[in-house]
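fyi for ur records
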Amino acid sequence: MSAPLIGRLVVVGVGLIGGSFAAALRRAGQVGEIVGVGRSADSKREALELGLIDRAESDWAAALAGADLVLLAMPVGQMDAVMSAMLPHLPAHTVVTDAGSTKGDVVAAARRCFGERVGQFVPGHPIAGAEKSGPQAARADLYERRRVVLTPLAENGGAAIELVRQAWLACGALLTVTTPEHHDRWLASVSHLPHLLSFALVSELAARPNAEEIFNLAGGGFRDFTRIAASHPEMWRDIFFANREALLTELSAYETELARYRALIESGDAAGLEALIGTAREARTAWAQRQG
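which gave:
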């Protein structure tokens, strides 16, 4: 049998994203040993029990020794601290990538922390996930036919980029390459803004005196729209602040569109409202068809 793509993988953050990456590579036969690192002893113990990792470490030197690839799969607000802590123990041959939902801030952190060694860091973001978190939510098929965006740096060598690319392909992912700036603008509109809207609707309804009655009457539309409001609070707090400017721009555009809908409803313009809804329906249907 040929050797696996990754002899030793280190996953920092063994929850949904990191655990699923480990599980997918193990299922594909493309990883030897998987080492888990994280803040929570309970999460590391659970990841061990579930077979997502082979051993858990709290010491960076022990965790990184002989590592071929490191995936940083914790909230983006932790990147600076984690990168600074790991760098003194990072072997020269080890490639580091991440799964952060924002890229501009993560790249800036990498440049600050890695300095002249920043070429070892290949930024990435799997556009996949679920409202559940933790090791118990991890699954080997999470990335199948899901988009993963890589935003390589000028300092990255071809071999480093190729290792990260092949790792995601082994997980069944579809790859897109762009710049950190483009990534953050795109994701602000189709990921960060929808999460903000979902959180806002649920928090507004939950604050009403008759919240229990309202939620008892909620049906499928509410369930579908608010599924993502069950997502990890710390992770999304960090994302909203990290991509603040792009998110605020998208929020302003959305507020303008809401005002257009409001004006049509207030004026009783049935034809105008139906046309606007129809345009949205056609765009949503076309997107769903392209997704297969």
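The CA atoms of residues 18 and 73 lie 5 Å apart. thats all i got for now
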